[in-house]
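During the reporting period, our protein records have gained a structure token line. One record among many is quoted in full directly below:
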Amino acid sequence: MRWIIRIVAVLVSLVLLGVSALFLIPAERLAGIAAQQFQVATGRSMAISGSVRPSIYPVIGARVEGVRIDNAPWSDAGPMLEADAVDLGLDLAALIRGELIVRRFEAQGPRILLERQADGRMNWVFERLNDDGTPAPSTASAGDGRTPALSIDLVEIRGATLRFIDHVSGTDLRLDSIDADLRMPEPGGAGTFALSGLLNGQRFASEAEIGTVLGFLAGDVAAVRVQLEAGAAEARFEGRAGLSPLAAEGRATLNAPTLAPLLALAGQTGPEPLPAAARPLNVSGQVTLAPAGSLHLRDTSVGFGANRTRMALDLTFDGPRPRLSGDITADALDLRGLTGPADTPAAPADSGWSRERIDASAVDLLDAAVTLRAGAVRTDFLDLDAVNAVLTIDRARAVFDLREIRLFEGRATGEFVVNNRSGLSVGGNLRADTLALLPLIRQFADFERLTGTGSAELRFLGVGNSLDAIMRSLSGEGRLALDRGEIIGLDLAGMLRNMDMSYMGEGNRTVYDSVTGSFAIQDGVLNNTDLQLASRLLTVDGRGSVDIGQQRLDYRVIPSAMRDAAGAAAIRVPLSITGPWSQPRFRLDLEGLAEERLREERERLEARAREEVQRLEAEARERAEAEALRRLGLERQEGRDARETLRDGARDRVEQEIGRGLRRLLGGD
């Protein structure tokens, strides 16, 4: 808008010149004088290829056709302004009083080029010539002693084309079919500005109200109200703002049923990025753009879909990357439908993990340290009762510090990491305590056959650009400990005791006291070798694999059921669990059962053999002891076994023989 004010101010002087010479100078000569005076006033060349028709009724003014204004000397992008016709009218009575009141300023089909040089120079800042011919800054503000105070009833620009080249940021914008209206009824006072047109193929309309136009253009802070519409999206700002330096403070709102129109204005094309579940997007809050360039949000509410969040955030730019910090809170969040692309139906439950490419580019945009607090959170893959977490992003690596997550009647802590520094990877170190198993397994595997509570620890790492690739690459380890619960739809003890497969289905269940086990994950396959289930009449040992990437089971459990409550010999029957985990198949492992029966028979025969060996050993020992007693001439004494009698008899016989030998040696009998 600054360039419009300055062009109007310069052309006013041309109108005065033209009107004063209306009856004295031919139109061609008048055009030459006007161009010469314009160059003296602005330092730019102006050419008028058409007619110049001054008028004095009903307003004093002139119509100039075929106007061309050259660009700044340092630009090679072409003329700054070309217009088919420019029509200007002034209030004669006000002019006699020494005031300039522009009753009309109309420009038909202008082609406008605005340009900012890399060193900060702008082509819409004109320079006039001093008496010695050197450039001097132009002054267009009221009260400078050269130009009377300026007020504008209406400035109209129709069918314009505007190109803005910014060599500082590398921006090259082109706006077509522009219609613009400017009003400033009081000299240097409040003004309104309306602009509509096409930008990057997207039609838009904007309006602005400024408390003090000339002061605002000079760098003063002024009251501002701005509104922008693109498609069905609407953005508003009402508060205070200044241009030098750029700063603003006030209330901002955004109502966007879709984001595509706004993104198109910024040059971003493609499908609608906002999922249907996140529409409409509504933002309202107190915004401060500090002179240093930092952005601060306070008392801010963000609504997307049925969700409402409260934010207090600060965005700074004084580091190697933008940095976001602050707090985000919500009473409840429903994030279902936000994990996939917009307007894409969910994949069937049995089709495996999604192969849609995960766009993790948001992790690369900035660094962050944001606290997240929310009540119940519902997502496509997990429902939470409460969330208290801290998100930290450093050089495309995001860490979710899970201080406390309430879920499935228990709690989880740990950290979850998304690393996009050199390809996408996800990992974590998580701990869960006293989780309710039935809702947990129902949520993840649509399986409703296990109740109780459990605790778990998990360390994992996955790499890939889709959920399917990540699940197939998973590695890690963990442990599981379940407290008392039930396996619904399966009575293992009854099945084993009666060898009857009918103990499955409605009304059957297996009660257990505990389940423990550990596991390791490699290439998306979980392996376990030490699963143990303990129950009063049943124990279960298990081992096998769970292919997480393929969502399949290959597991073998060996339940041991007591024959009765008195603890009679156990029956062991292996059970195989295979197939997709959404519909697992349970069947007796007949080969394992045969091996189990052979093992039991082998143990029985080995026991009988040991008994027979022990019996034969006892009989042989008795015969040997009897023969030894006979030869020694001893008799078994009451209350003593044969070995004791033999030992004592042998000792007596040895003593007797030693005594006889000594007597003979000493010459006795």
